[in-house]
Amino acid sequence: MQVDRREFFKILSAGAVTMSSISTVQARTATALPPDAEGVLYDATLCIGCKSCEVACKRNNSMPMDHDSYEKDLGVDGVWDAPKDLNAKTLNKIQVYRNGKANTRNQEVDGFSFVRRACMHCADPDCASACPTTAFTKDEKTGIVAWDKDRCCGCRYCQIACPYNIPKFEYDKAIPLVHKCEMCSHVQAEGGIPGCAEFCPTGATIHGKFTDILEEAKRRIALQEGAEYPYPVSSLKGVFRRTSDKDGSFIQDEPQDNSFIQRRPVAKYIDYIYGQSESGGAQYLMLSAVPFEKLGLPKPGFSSAAARSENISHTLYKGMIAPIALLGGLVFAAHRSSKSLESEGEVDHE
Amino acid sequence: MSETYAPLGGKLWTKPFSILFTLAVVGIALMGYRFLFGIGAVTNLNDGYPWGLWIVYDILVATGLACGGYAMAILVYAFNRGQYHPLIRPALLASVFGYTLAAFAIVIDTGRYWNLINIFLPGTSNIGSSWMVEVAISISSYIVVLWIELSPVMLEKWNKTKLRRAVHRSMFVVVAFGLLFPTLHQSSLGGLMIVAGNKLSPLWQTDWLPALFLLSAISMGFAVVVFEAIFSATVLKRPYEQKMLSKLAWTIPYLLGAFLVLRWVTLLANNGLSDLAFNAKGIMFVIENLLFIYPLIVLLSKANREKLTQLFYASISILLAGAVYRFDAFLVGFDPGGGFVYFPAVAEILITVGIISIELVAYLFFVKRFPVLPVLKDA
Ligand code: SF4
Ligand code: SF4
Ligand code: SF4
Questions:
Q1: I need a labelling partner for B285 at 20 to 30 A (CA). Which of A205, A346, B237, B300 fits?
Q2: Which chain A residue is nearest to residue B336, measuring alpha carbons?
Q3: Which residues line ligand 1 (CB under 6 A)?
């Protein structure tokens, strides 16, 4: 019996060797963004907190108005829109940072700043890596991360995974949905641009190809404080306006007419583009004059948790080699033990 | 020394049985309410804390406690220790109900449960990327395996000798799968939290979560066998299997030692102690570690292993350690930021209590009506 035990360990160690050899298989890295990836840039130094983007977002996505529980408890609901944070009815949220007297814009001490929260459209989205049903997918062309209600089983693993707490779940519904910004992909499909960018009056939120957006962001943080800069409004490609609400089509003002440019003095930018490398990078980039952590933005680290998680999972499960090797050893061991149990008469014979 | 098993017999509707039955009914009623009005109607779960008591207790802790069958199978089949065979059947029965109800709890906890099938379908399954797919496939397969392993008990009672023999002959394959699946899913359960990144405190976050969850699950498995044997002997007024239990207990210090070494090496390597402070996280971290260290020290001594009381308290400590570790790694150590807070709601707790009660009611019914417990001749 002792010999058998040694043999069993031999088999187990064979399994272990297979496992460790698998770990040298190429590590999973985030795939590069597609060349046509869409991007959104939010420049907090330009944001006046008017919440036009929130209204546009609700309109584009047919989302209801919402309140926090205090107003709701007083019986006020559906009259005006004032939730404090993103939730299952709110995909886009302007929040405010205030310090001391809070009388100067874009200033950390005794100042204030706005921040716009929405899905970051990660290059390597943790939500999609975690989701067991592939309900979250990243579009191969646009890079937009979207959710599919016909796949989702409502396990909320995406909420555990997302480093920005973006996916929201309808806890109050018998048949719940998950909600998050999908970069107005349905509007973009018709030739339009994201509502938050379309209706932002100051150019704080603009839309464009990701590569152009990134370039614009880099240009801005290199600007001299106080210099004048022609800030584009709505889009890097020109202004998009709905011709009318009825036919729902879009026209594009050609960039030449300059009507979409606002000349403004440059604020004191923090020399950092939030979203460029957070959690493996994102297609929603942010600029600010107030430190990003003061705006309540998390620091998820520079490589995505998805990459770590999947590397370990791939190591153990690649080609099912390790589990099958282990199973082989176990079948052998179990067969031997049942035989020895029977020969010793420990198991009753039929 | 042939083993025979017999139903315990006796009255079913004892007082504890009726209490458990009532709690089960209350739980089921509340589950009905949840299906009509949503998860938020009975829980305090929120967008920051999407997983709470149900995931952590009903699935993580309950399957850990249900590892008795697995732990005993490791000893008997993988290490060829046939002398422990009489402990397998009762352990198996507890595992069957523990796991079956965990699967049931998953349906209650998932919002769009009719889409659960998408986890398994080749077109939609996120296999290879999502730890949850591995967990789901492996747990559901294990439930099938457990019921097959338990089938001789029912076939014996229903006198299906032919079928029973067929099952018996191929049992070694089933047993092998019964060893494989818990190894896979108990580690994958730990793997679930890796993707939470730094939302999980470095006191718990590590790439080694799968190994730590596996080691602690096996420890819980052995502890539950010891606990259950002593407890049921006391309650059902049967003689203690003291000799066998003390011999069994030698494995436990090694397992706990391995767990603690890996735990602390990874903790120090990640500089996890930087997050240790006098707060809920810190206190739970200390409690968790004490619960692991106490049984390790007690069971190192052979004299202690031979004392039923020492064995009993040590096994309780291990069960609590495993449970607290699971709560810590999924809830206490998890901080999504953004001001979210979570503490289970009354109805949420009552549903978990209901699930535990269903499990106990089913267990009692089975041991009284089916041949599960070994007949003791030298009693
Ligand atoms: S921000 Fe969150 S929800 Fe959006 S793509 Fe990234 S991980 Fe997914
Ligand atoms: S809740 Fe839905 S979308 Fe989120 S991880 Fe689960 S199945 Fe995927
Ligand atoms: S892109 Fe559309 S859905 Fe996303 S925040 Fe802007 S308006 Fe809302």
A1: B300
A2: A165
A3: A 119-122, 125-127, 145, 162, 164, 166-167, 180
